[in-house]
Amino acid sequence: MKVPFVLVTKLKRAVDTSLKDITQVAIPSHFTIDRQLRDKYPQVKWILVENTSIAMNMVNKGEVDAAVTTQLSARYIIDHYYPNALNYMRLSDMPLAPISFALSKSDPELKSILNKALMSIPPREILQLTEKWSKMPKVQIETWNLYSKQFYLVIALAGTLIISSLIWGIYLLSEVRKRKESERQLEIQLQLKESLSSALEEEKNKAILATEAKSQFLATMTHELRTPVSSIVGFLELLDGHKLDDQQHREAISQVYSTAQSLLGLIGEILDVDKVASGKYQIQYQRTDVNKLILEICRSFEGITQKKNLSLNVNITLPNDIQVLVDPQALRQIVNNLISNALKFTDEGWVQVCVHQHRFSDYQTGIQILVSDTGCGISQDEQATLFTRYSQARSGRLQTGSGLGLAICKELVSLMHGTLTMDSQPGSGTTLTLNLPVEICAPQPDISSVPQSEPLALAPLSILIADDHPANRLLLRRQLQNIGYEVHEASDGDVAEKMLGRMHFDLLITDINMPGKDGITLSKDIRKSHPTLQIWGLTANAQEHMREKCLQSGMNLCLFKPVSLGTLTNELNKLARGRPVTPAISHLNVDVLNRNTGGQKDLLNELIQVFYREAKKDLAEAEKAITVGSFSKFRQAMHRLHGASQLLEIAELKTILVPVEAMDEIELTNEYCLSVLKSVRSILQDVSEEIAIICPADIQELPDR
C-alpha cells in the first residue's frame, strides 16, 4: 500500500509547485525522498526533525514555512489538532510513500505469511480500514513536544515562588533572631552596667582602705624597726657614757653588729607579711640550737633593759646539746616580737623568758616558750582583737607602733602548726605561751670543728676549680692551699672543659650557675669522657632538689656555699682514702668566715677587697641590664653577687637575692629590679661600715663604694 507525499503550510498561504516563496521546510529524518527534494529545490533550506508531529507544530508556530509528510498523517493531524490552521498540497512529482511491515531477515516464513494475508484482503476493505483509522477519536500525539515550553514556564514560575517564599521566611526568621539577640544583649548590658556600678563602688571602698592601709603600713615599719634600733642606741650609750673594760667593749661592739644584722633581716621579714597572708611564705625547717638562739635574742635587749632598769631573766631547761627541726628565722622573729612587747609595756619589775621541752600528746612532743612580764596587763575584751593586723590595746596606742607584730607572730606560728595564747589581767602583767610541735634531734657532730693543726694524711690530688667569680675562686684556692693542695683555676665551664682535655685531674670542683656552660651541663658533658673523675658541685641554692639535680647530672658530691675548711678537709680525706663521698650540708654562724680563712688576717682582707671589687662590677652589670631591659642578665649578676655574699655570711643579701633567682624573667619588672638594686647598695654600704669596725686598721684598703 502506498500514499502520496504532501506539503503542509498555513491555511491562508498560497503555494505553487515550484516552492519559490518557500525558504525553510521541515522534513522527518526517516523520509527517503530527502535527497530528491534537496536536488529539486536547492533554494530551500531543509530542516530535519524527529517526526511528523514536530514538523507540523513548527509550521503552526511559524518557525518554518512548510513541512513534508504523508497525506495520511497530514489529514489526521490537521483534522485533530489544526483544523482551521493548516492545509496540505500534494507533491505530484514525487514518488509515493509505501506503507510496509518491517521484519527481521531471520523470519522469512513470517514475511511470506503476511504477504499472502495482505494479498487476500480486497482493496475496498483496505480503504475502509484506512477511513476507520483516520476517523478515530482524538488521540494525544507528542504532547510533550507540543507543550514542553509551557510546562517549563510553569515549573520556573512555581520554583520562583517557592524560592521567594523560602527567602522571605528565612529573612523573617533572621529578623526574629536578631530582635531576640538585641533584647538579650540589652539585658546583658543592663546587668553589666549594674555589675560595673557595684564594682566601681567596691573599688572605691578598696581605694579608701588602701589609703588607710598605706598609713598603717608606715606606722608598722616604725613598730617593727624600733626594737633593734633601740637596742643599738642602748649599746652605743653604754659605749659612750660608761667606762668599759676591753672585754665589755668588744662584747658591746659585737652586739651592735649582730643587732644591726637582725635589723636588716627584720626589714625583709616585714615585707614578707603579705607573702605569709597569701600562702607564699615557705617555712624552712633546719636543725637549730634553740638554747643558743634564745640567748642571742635576749642579749640583744640588754641595752634596753639597762636603760629602763628592768631585769630580763632567762630560764632554759633544754639540754645543752639538743637540736630541733624548726625555721630559725621565723622563731627569731616571733620571740623578738614577744620580748619587745613585754619590755615596751613594762615600766618596772622584770621580764622572764622560759624555754622547756613539752609533751603535747602521747605521740607528739615539742618546745614551749613562755614570755612573762610585770607590765600593765590587758583586758579580756582587748585580747580578742590583739592578734589581728593593726589592732592595738588602749595602752598600746600610747606607744609608737601599729599593732602588726602579734599578727605576724600568729601567722608564722600557724604556718609551723603551733599555737600562741595570751594570759593577762589589767595590772597583773601578761604571759604569752608559744607551743611548737617540733622534732627533737640528736646532736649533730660539727665537722667544721676538726682541729686544723692536726696533720691529715692526704694523698696527692690534682684539683681543678671552675667558678666565674674571682672572689669565690680566691677563697677556694686559699682553702685548698691551706689544706696542702695546689690547684688550677678556670673562669667558666668552657675553659674548664678545655683544660680537662689537655691535662689530667683527679678532682673537679665547679660552681653550678655560671654564664655560658654551667656546672650541670659541664658535668654531663665530661662524665662521658672522664668516667672516673671526681666532680663536686658548689651552689648557693641550699635546696634538696638542687642537690638531686647535681647528682643526676653525674656529680659525686654537692656542697652548699659557704664551704668551711673542716668540710673540705673531711671530704678530701674521704676521697684520698677511697671512701665514698656523701653529700654534707653545714649551717654556719657569723664567725664562719674566720674559720674558712684559717684566721689569717691578710687572707681575710684580700677576700674582702676582691668581694667588693667584684660586687661593684656586678652592680654595674645589673644597672646596665636594667637600662637595656635584659632581666636575664640582671638575674645572672644578682646570682654572682649572691654566691659571693655567702662567703661573708651576709644573710640580708640572701633574703633579697634568693627570690630574684627564683623568679622568671616575666616576673622581674623594672621597678622591682630598681628596688632590689637600691636595697643591695644600702646593705653593702652598711656591711662595709661594720667591717671597718671589725678591722679598723685596714679599712683604707677597702675599694670605693
Low-confidence blocks of residues: 396-402, 447-456, 579-590, 696-705
Strand order of the largest sheet: 4-3-5-2-6
CATH homologous superfamily label of the domain at 447-596: Response regulator
Strand content: 5-15%
Tally of contiguous helical segments: 23
Largest sheet: 5 strands, mixed
If you average the pLDDT, what whole number results? Answer: 78
Instruction: Estimate the global geometry from the Cα principal axes.
Output: elongated
CATH class of the domain at 447-596: Alpha Beta
Return Rg in Å.
Answer: 56 Å
Structural class: alpha/beta
CATH topology term of the domain at 447-596: Rossmann fold
C-alpha termini separation: 137 Å
CATH architecture of the domain at 447-596: 3-Layer(aba) Sandwich
Kindly state the percentage of residues in helix: 40-55%
Strand tally, please? Answer: 20
Question: What features would you describe in this structure?
Answer:
- The chain has 705 residues and is α/β, with parallel strands linked by helices.
- Among the domains are: 2-134, D-Maltodextrin-Binding Protein, domain 2 (3-Layer(aba) Sandwich); 447-596, Rossmann fold, CATH 3.40.50.2300; 601-701, Four Helix Bundle (Hemerythrin (Met), subunit A) (Up-down Bundle).
- The chain is built from 23 helices and 20 strands.
- Strands 4-3-5-2-6 form a 5-stranded mixed β-sheet. Strands 9-11-12-14-13 form a 5-stranded mixed β-sheet, covered by helices on one side.
- α7 (246-270) packs parallel to α22 (651-662) and α22 packs antiparallel against α23.
- The chain is elongated and about 170 Å long.
- Mean pLDDT is 78; it is low at 396-402, 447-456, 579-590 and 696-705.
